[in-house]
Each structure stands twice: as structure tokens, then as C-alpha cells.
Design brief:
By secondary structure, the chain is an alpha/beta fold. It contains 13 helices and nine strands. A seven-stranded mixed beta sheet has the order 3-2-1-4-7-5-8, with helices on both faces. Helix 1 packs across helix 4.
Length: about 300
């Protein structure tokens, strides 16, 4: 059993009060039953919309909670390294600040879990009638069966994600997130690769956080393209850890890169228009990702 846990939450332009409130309530219950110590540390990575910072500031008054308001943007990797340094306990649970906890035993399962790296996973929530034309909802829902704990364990290293996981503070200090990753995508994949290379075993359990709110289709497409650019920028470090990269690399080796770039010039705009629109065709999403990745290959 973990004797003390720091829950560390990076946030950026999102509300996190409900998440912190849920964690506080569960932590108090687990503390009363098992005697564990806890803290919750939230770091706002210089949100561009100050209304989120103001609304989240209520958590500053709560016991065992610290709210760090950064005056400049560190980026996705550096803010996680900062949270690890700021944490007072050896065991850390990283949770993205825009997610939700709806399991009553979420904290307890991490407190009683075994292993030095434990990934809890995600669950897809939200009203299907409300989100039926939302691209991210459709994509996440289709992929959900492949992200069960049992399925994730089959490729434990490649399935590592920073959305929701437990790790020792010493492991993060010794193997920090690569701060060259400032933009969206794949910093978690490389971090999992580094942990494995340093001798840590990644364990996957059924203890998901809930995704129940989804960005608009145009915003999700922007993030998708940013992730593709990150993948290409760090393709040497990420080799063997991305099926999209493996397919793209094969096409390049088969001398099909010029054809892929031409296909993107012809099809990229209409494909993106559909995927960003009000009735996106999910069957086009991976085609677009592949063509866009080839289009930025240098």
C-alpha cells in the first residue's frame, strides 16, 4: 500500500474545480480507512484565458491543495517535470486537469495498486445524442474497446499515456519528460519508452478517468495536425512506438513520398473540410492523418 500520494494536475485553459473536489473527498475517505497521507498540486501553465484561473482559484482555500499559477508557459513536458519537483510525496498520480473522476474507488485503487508505474486508462463519457457529430467523441468511442486494461497490457510499453498514471517521484526525477516536446502530442510515448529503457515495468489496470467533454471539430483537427508535426519532428526517438509513423516510414522507403504529398495537395482541403464540419466521416480521419503526415515529412 502507498503510504503517501501526491496527485499532480497540469491545467491549461480548463476548469478543474470539480476534479479536485472529487479527489479531495476520496482522499479523505482513504486516509480515514488506511491512514495514507495525500496532497493535490495543480499547476496552471499560464492559461491564455484568465477566467479559468480565476474560477479555479477557489481550490487555494482547501486543505492539502496547492495551486501554482505560472507566469509563463512551460509546455506539456516541462510543466509535468515542475509538478514532480514540487510534489512532497514519493508516489505521484498524474491526471490531466480537464478530465473527471466518476469511480468512487479511484483513489483507493491507486493506493492499493502494485508496481512502480501504473496506468489507469480512460473511459469515454458524454451524451451520445449531444456528441454524435463530434469527431473526437466518435474517434475515442471507436477506439475504446482497444484501450481496456487487458488490451493495453498486450503492448504495455507502447500503450503508456500520461492522462492518468501513477509513478514514483524518483523515477520522474531520474527520467524527466523531454522538454524539447513543447507542442501537442507524443511526449508521453517517449516518456514511457524512457521508463522502460531504465528498467521500470509498466502495469495497466482498470482505473480510468472520464472524458466527457470534447473540443470542436476544427480545434481537434488543429491538435491532430500538431501531433503529426510532433511525430515527424521526433521520429527517430519514437521509432517503434507509433503505427502511423511505421506506415509513413514504409511509404517513404518504398519511394511513395512524392505520391503522398501530391495526394495531400489534391485531397487535403476537401478531407479537412469534411472532418472539421458538422457531419464528419470517421472513415476519413486516419486517411487524412496519413496524408498530412506525409505532407510535412522533410
Amino acid at each position: 500500500m502507498r503510504q503517501a500520494i501526491s496527485f499532480v494536475l497540469p491545467t491549461y485553459n480548463c476548469h478543474c474545480v470539480q476534479l479536485v473536489e472529487t479527489l479531495c473527498r476520496q482522499c479523505r475517505m482513504v486516509q480515514a480507512e488506511y491512514g495514507i497521507d495525500y496532497e493535490i498540486v495543480v499547476a496552471d501553465d499560464c492559461s491564455t484565458d484568465q477566467s479559468y484561473v480565476r474560477s479555479n482559484s477557489v481550490i487555494e482555500r482547501w486543505n492539502n491543495v496547492r495551486y501554482l499559477k505560472l507566469d509563463h508557459n512551460l509546455g506539456r513536458s516541462a510543466v509535468r517535470n515542475l509538478l514532480a519537483r514540487e510534489a512532497r510525496h514519493e508516489w505521484l498520480v498524474f491526471i490531466d486537469g480537464d478530465l473527471a473522476v466518476d469511480r468512487p474507488d479511484f483513489v483507493e485503487k491507486y493506493a492499493l495498486s502494485e508496481g512502480d508505474v501504473v496506468v489507469g486508462g480512460t473511459a469515454i463519457g458524454g451524451d451520445a445524442k449531444l456528441w454524435h457529430n463530434n469527431l473526437r467523441y466518435l474517434y475515442e468511442k471507436r477506439c475504446e474497446p482497444a484501450h481496456s486494461a487487458q488490451q493495453r497490457m498486450r503492448l504495455a510499453n507502447r500503450e503508456f499515456r500520461t492522462t492518468n498514471f501513477l509513478v514514483s517521484r524518483s523515477a520522474v526525477i531520474a527520467n524527466p519528460f523531454d522538454e524539447a516536446f513543447r507542442h501537442y502530442g507524443y511526449e508521453d510515448v517517449l516518456f514511457g519508452k524512457q521508463l522502460t529503457a531504465s528498467g521500470h515495468t509498466i502495469n495497466h489496470i482498470d482505473n480510468p478517468v472520464l472524458i466527457d467533454d470534447y473540443e470542436s471539430n476544427p480545434v481537434y483537427m488543429d491538435k491532430t495536425e500538431e501531433a503529426c508535426r510532433t511525430l515527424i519532428e521526433f521520429r527517430q526517438q519514437l521509432e517503434g512506438y507509433s503505427s502511423l509513423l511505421a506506415l509513413s516510414t514504409s511509404l517513404v522507403r518504398w519511394h511513395l513520398l512524392p505520391l503522398g504529398k501530391l495526394a495531400y495537395r489534391i485531397l487535403g482541403t476537401p478531407l479537412r473540410r469534411n472532418l472539421s464540419g458538422t457531419k464528419p466521416l470517421l472513415s476519413l480521419f486516419n486517411i487524412y492523418r496519413l496524408l498530412y503526415t506525409l505532407s510535412v515529412w522533410a
